[in-house]
Amino acid sequence: MSATGEDARLAALDSYQLLDGPRPLVLDELTRLASSVLETPMSAVNLIGRDRQWHAGSSGILPGEVPLELSLCARLVGTREPLVVEDTHDHPEYRDWEPVRFYAGAPVIDEDGHVLGTLCVLDDRPRTFTGRQLDMLVMMAGQAAGHLAAIRARRLLAEVGDELSRAISREEDFVATVSHELRTPVTTIQGYLELLVDNEELTPYRKLIDPIQRNGERLVAMVDHLLAGTRPAGTPLPLLRARTDLVSVAEAAVAACRHQATQRDVRVEIRPGDGAALVPGDFTRLSQAAEQLVRNGVLFSPAGSTVTVRIAAGALEVTDTGAGIPVDELAHVSERFYRGRFAREQAVPGVGLGLSIADRIVRAHDGALAVTSAGPGAGTVARMTLPDM
What is the pTM of this model? Predict the structure, then answer.
């Protein structure tokens, strides 16, 4: 890239005012989604500055920055193309990038064509990467670019006096700060625990380390859940509306619930409909909504049963054969912190925010969430209906 082109790129990057600032929660959410869908322990949205790489959002990686000479992502600024390295040990130019053994990154390109950085997933073990996975990574990099543009636009509107934008910006700053203050210490602890897990000399202590890791992950998930479910009711939910495939949304939701489903011996099956199921929506938010529906299905289903996710034009439906919902409780299931009788009696994990979160996300997309059940023991059907393309 020419010096002039690089100066223009850096000027564009500076206009987002994210370097050294609070990390936008939506980018952290996007990286967690990437790690879940692509089954990697680490992921990040990296912004490439003049002499450093800044984690604007990350999962499984200690927050902060790295020098540009240690950045794999910096290589994508010039090529503008995705890069996949299935095993760094197979490539002389990447062998020194310990402990990274696997890397896949896609450029984050803004609407003016500037490469701001990358969305990447990493592993300390070699792995294969399919064409479908690369498509998902590129799509999520596009989502990252869209979220960055929306963040900048809201900030600019707030500066010129738009009250709604100021309200959204204040809430986003608050959520980002709270998330940073609560999640960063736990993320740091988890990062050091990963180093301990990889130390063979500490193998005898694995039984002590594993529960700490699991409970740290639960704490991070609970913080995210509470932040998502307790947003002020009058504040609009910022959305990035783009062509979104509901099959990809379902895949992301199922991936996020995979571990829980395995633990409870519940199978989750996706049944796509005929033809495309495209909606104008926010992939990250819709995946969060679908995740709440799938997780509820898993938590309330008996071992050995199946939760089915059906996709149709403008609709995603989750069906389980579990405990069901008493008819007199159906009107309350989307209320904040509401936990029905079965949830209390069976000590089902949760704080009663899942359906409230899903309902708010769907309504923000001008859609509707319907939850039906024939009563105790009859299972439950939760259906998201959205405007299609």
Answer: 0.81
